[in-house]
Amino acid sequence: MCGIWALFGSDDCLAVQCLSAMKIAHRGPDAFRFENVNGYTNCCFGFHRLAVVDQLFGMQPIRVKKYPYLWLCYNGEIYNHVKLQHHFEFEYQTKVDGEIILHLYDKGGIEQTVCMLDGVFAFILLDTANKKVFLGRDTYGVRPLFKAMTEDGFLAVCSEAKGLVNLKHSMTPFLKVEPFLPGHYEVLDLKPNGKVASVEMVKFHHCRDEPLHALYDSVEKLFPGFEIETVKSNLRILFDNAIKKRLMTHRRIGCLLSGGLDSSLVAATLLKQLKAAQVQYPLQTFAIGMEDSPDLLAARKHCPCEQRGSCTFSVQGTSFLLWKNLHRTDEKELESSPKVANHIGSEHHEVLFNSEEGIQALDEVIFSLETYDITTVRASVGMYLISKYIRKNTDSVVIFSGEGSDELTQGYIYFHKAPSPEKAEEESERLLKELYLFDVLRADRTTAAHGLELRVPFLDHRFSSYYLSLPPDMRIPKNGIEKHLLRETFEDSDLIPKEILWRPKEAFSDGITSVKNSWFRILQEYVEHQVDDTMMAAAAQKFPFNTPKTKEGYYYRQIFERHYPGRADWLTHYWMPRWINATDPSARTLTHYKSAAKA
User: Fold this and answer.
1) What is the per-residue pLDDT across 524-579, written as a single tens digit (0 to 9) for each?
2) From the candidates 2, 73, 255, 303, which is the catalytic residue?
3) Using CA atoms, how far apart are residues 467 and 409, in angstroms rounded to an integer?
């Protein structure tokens, strides 16, 4: 995880423009560099580094002796770089995974390059010999990328929009900033004056399609056909591989563990892979919530087994509970102590926060997110606070998480109301296509704000494309249970406790608080005193685009506009459930959830 920034054809002083790049310094707390492009005095790269791979030679822009005309700035991880290096017999100058982009581009051009990358990435590639600039972003937009381009050819690119909004350009008083679409690359001509002209924007991968790099990976052969046992075996193979390849790092690995199905499967498989790789440190897992939250109670069912105890401490007003290896023999103590962390044997950390601390974090969270989407903001508060804790109190830097599973495996409660398996399939693909606006955005910004790198194995190209290739009726909820196929796949694995494997879906923003007093209700009660009826009556006039329909939405929009005035179009629409008459995105407002909670 790093922060990348570049300008082409700037009319303003680069020394002044470069100040904007410091807005994303949180993405790379280990080092930073600004570098002008030889022969183009109005072109510049900026880079903030989080040193995860090749700590000695990993600074960017990457330039190697063999290709002195190529400049690369990228944010991401290319998991198959060693396999491709050996297969094509490339001579590497560094151990940086991104160097593979230069060699692949030289060998086969930009289209073959992006299709061969197994990983997550956002990059800016400059070819001064052929006068080209290339931008690219991974299939799901796991790594962010924004751009601004004027009619006269000024181009600005950055990992986050906040690094572009204050840039100056003589021809444009208000620079239009927009997200670069996932799964695409763009080709631009570089003119002698440093300006650019867009040539083409190309979609290089659809989530349904098996990626080209599958030809070169080392996954054991999958069995053909859609018999249930065959499918389950293939899914286990691909999921194991998705975790294994993501161990690529020189920094300590940790894992978010809410106690739900997705994070529990990730944590348990991760621990298995770390043991196989003979990693010497214990896996740190992290959960957050208020007292009596379902997520904390469930996550405790995974903490260090026969030797455990706890201590509570405080950092900047927020309480933290760390389950540690201490001898306890009292049977009652064993029953009430942590049991998904117990099962897998991790060093489990709990972060406890109260409603006041959550509300106080809203301004920072919305600034970091660059969105005002209601469900995204709600879910981000907990993730922001736990990321803050991880950075300040541990040495875990590479953090695994379960993002993407709900979209891929039809895990949202409203999928029970899908009119048909085919409609459910369409909705799943729509959600995956829009991840970069919602869950992936949340996961990246809340962790990157504290200099952490997030890894999301459920969005692995091989795993997700195989899952989407299965017959639609195989993937829908069954017997009143969402993600039935995923649960069934690991039924006999003993990876996680059965009660966790079959635990009903909890939204992250719901699971961090008790059923009696949901986080969304806490927020709504607070906002009731911040936004009055007169303000709501004038909402359509004040906010004609994406007009907020609730006081909570109005409150978030106010904060957003204070930080990013006139940028409301970054969010195309609010996230809401389909096929039901929902007035709130929380799962706890849905009939299915209420009946499940009573049961």
Assistant:
1) 999 999 999 999 999 999 999 999 999 999 999 999 999 999 999 999 999 999 99
2) 2
3) 8
Residue-level pLDDT at 259: 79
Compute the distance between CA of residue 213 and CA of residue 84 in angstroms, rounded to an integer.
9
Of residues 173 and 539, more confidently modeled: 539
Half-sphere exposure (CA, 13 Å, Cβ side) for 467?
31
Residues flagged as binding site: 97, 256, 288, 401-402
pLDDT tens figures, 482-493: 999 999 999 988
**2 among known catalytic residues:** yes
The β-bridge relationship of strands 252-256 and 396-400 is parallel
What is the pTM (predicted TM-score) of this model? 0.91
Contact of 209 with 466, CB cutoff 8 Å: no
CB 437 within 8 A of CB 198: no
Cα–Cα distance between 76 and 78 in angstroms, integer? 7
List CB contacts of 199: < 8 A, sequence separation 6 or more.
187, 188, 189
pLDDT at residue 172 tops 90: no
DSSP class of residue 284 equals: E
Structure token pair of residue 526: 């607070």
Q: What share of the chain is helix, strand, coil (3-state, %, to 5)?
A: 40, 20, 40
Give the residue ranges of the annotated binding site for L-glutamine: 97
**571: enclosing H helix or E strand:** none
The one-letter amino acid at 471: P
8 Å CB contact between 95 and 48: no
